[in-house]
Structures are given as structure tokens and as C-alpha cells.
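Backbones bend. We report:
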Amino acid sequence: MHKGRKAVGTRGQITISRRTVLAALAASVPLMSASATRAQSDLATPVLPGSPDARPVTVTVAGRGIRVDGQPFAVRGVAGDGPLALLPGLGATTVRSYGEDPGPLLDEAGLLGLKVIAGLWVGQPRQGADYADAAFRARQLAELEAVVTRYREHPALLMWGIGNEVEVELADDTPVWPVIEEVAAMVARVDPAHPSLAVLAETGTDKVEKLRRAAPSVTVLGLNSYGDALYTVAERSRKQGWDGPIIVTELGALGQWQAARTPWGAPFEPSSSQKAIQLRRYLTALEEAQVGAILFLWGQKQEVTPTWHSLLLPDGAWLEAAEAMAEAWGGQAPGGNQAPRIDTLRVATDPSAPYASWAAEQEGSFTLDAVEPGSDLMEVRWLVMAESTGRGVGGDPEAVPELYPDAVRQSGPTGARVSGLAPGHYRLFVEVRDGQGAAATANMPFEVR
């Protein structure tokens, strides 16, 4: 994602890709084929159904914790625009937005007993925001104040999320910290009942310290972090002097900037099962550190692939990540169901190969090893897509690569054959569904020479 970064993660403004991307998957032959939950910690707040007569709440910072009307509140939730109805059952308490009008989200979340970190979008200098322009700063601040004024008494409001990685890709990030303080001070003045949170792209070597010194009105630290960086994100923040609450405002199993790559630069994406294994570890670590956790992305988004950060398929089918969330937060997967598992997607002629390569006049052959824990009937679908070349920065919008629906010449529950492609770089995707609302995904990059 960001060149020069090591073991850190970032996202940018959210633009959800078109929902029909994976609908083009070619269906194959069907294949026949309970997780224990942990008790919620003392920080948990019960998720109760909303009510029309709900009243605004007062949210306070108490040391390293957050309290809602005086009671401890654990931030456990998601960022994105997927359907919210599944979240309370998973044990989630919170939804994060980025900067769109928060009204509809606040209303929907409130009816489900969820709280909202309402995003206040702060322009990013790398996208043209000029903080040397006093008129621009004044106009932006006035627009954000109007949002805070309008929604400050909404019962579902938890806090205000200021910006998202405003400091990213800057040789000199000095101009952004006073702007964050301006917004945070405005929030403290206009809505003292809800704290402000500033969202950074990881800790850097001194970014948390810069925020702490230049923006004292910010009372909650938000960090976007991915992969094994999550194990130390709280410790690294504390070493820079942050002693208040910390929320990981985006987390995922692996950022594409952290992944190993093919010789042509295509990052290797873990399967949905591999991601779930890692998420279980990360969520456990964050719970033990009493750090809030917001997973990215509750919905579906093209970023390198349509599945890399997506926790749902375009039609709302959920992946094993939902089980990891439920296990960490004392909830239950929808209907007590378990998602299909993908053990391996391999090159048939060389099972240890991390990618496939063949000449244009030849074909590629792949094998799949998948299982459905509940013994439901599984449907296996295959798709070939061009390798993404228009990579965004910080989560900026990316075009969906071209699909090649005729390239999968033979397919079934245990494998597929691919041919008829011009020389180039591609990915083979497989999607496994159980017919009960759950799915699993995997893909493998390949080249045609």
C-alpha cells in the first residue's frame, strides 16, 4: 500500500466497488461434503435493541477506558457499509463511518443497539487539500461543525472520528496536526458529551507523539493497523506517550503492502480461512490489551482484489472472519452456522508452487481442498480476472480488473483448468458457498507466457 512501510497498515477514504463483480462467477458441480465462544470481558456493554424513545448518551474518557453514561464500554465492531443486522449477534457494539452524512447510519445502528464513531472527513494534502489556504480551512471547519451540531444529540452517537490518515504520503506532515486540533477543539466546544478520536496510519516512529503534543483536544487515539503489527500497536503507542484510550480503527489479517509477491509484483492474498486464523489471534491480543477493535471492511471493496479486505461477498454472504469476531466478543455466528473452510488452492502440476505459469498454447490446472464443517451441500464457483494494475494509495478507489468468464474451461468441486488467455498476468478465484449464507474464498496469481 504505502511504499517504504514495514509491517504497518493504512486505508483511505472508502469507495465501495460495484456489487456485481463476483456475481459473474461460473457455477460448478456441487460438492457434498461450533466453535466455542469466549465470555465477554468486564469491559463489555450488552447490545440491546434500540427504541424510538432512546435518549442521547454522555460518553467520557476514564483513564484508558471509555464510559457511556458512566458504564464501561468496549469498542468492538466494523467499518464499512455492509448490512448491520448481523453485527449484534456477533457481539459487536460499534460501527465506524468515514465522512459521509452519518444520519442514516446513526438511525440504523440505533435501532440495533449499536453505537457509531461518526467520521468527520478532513481533506488530505496528498489529494489536494491546501492547509496554507486559510479560506479552505475555515470552510472545512464550518462544514464539519454543521455536522456535529446536527447529530450531537443522536442516541447512537459514540464519538467523532477526525480524519483518516491525513498525514499519509507527506514529506512534511507539519501542516496536518494543527488542522486536527482545530477540528477536535471545535468538537469539544460544540459537543462536550462526545469525545473526539483522530485516525492515523499506524504509529510511525513519532506520529503519536506529534498528535499528542499538537492536538491536545483529541482524547482517543485511532490507529489503522494490519497483520502482525497489531501485536505491538498498543505498546508502541504507549512508548510515544499516549496514555488514553486506543482504538484500532481499521484492522485486517494482512495488508497487501505486507504480503510476499510474485516475480511480477502481484501480492499473495491469504484465503478467507487463513485470514480468520490470524484474526482470531489479533482480536485476542487486542482484547487482552483492552484496545478497541474495528475490522475493515464490513462490505465488499475492490483493492488489489475484490476479496482482499472484504468481510462479506457482494450479496451479503459472510466469511469465516465473522466467526472469529463472535469468538472474541462472546457472540455467535449467524444461525450458529460455520463457514466453509478452504484448506488449499494449489497448482496441480506443482503443489508447492506459490503461483502458476504456463505458455499461451498450454493450460493451467489447479486443485482445491475445501470442507464444510456442518456437512451442508457446497457450491464451488471459479473465475479468472486480470491482475490489478491501477493500485490506489491509502485505499483510494481502484477500477475492477477485467473478467475472463470463458477462461475456466473445466471446473468442479476439487479443481479447475484454465486456458485460452493471451500472455499476461491474471488471478484465478474460487468461491465456496454452503447455501446457508456463509462462504469461503481464495485466489492464486498466474502468468501466461
Residues 1-49 have pLDDT under 50 and may be disordered. The two ends are 27 Å apart (CA to CA). Helices lie at 87-90, 103-111, 134-151, 176-190, 207-214, 233-239, 272-288, 321-329.
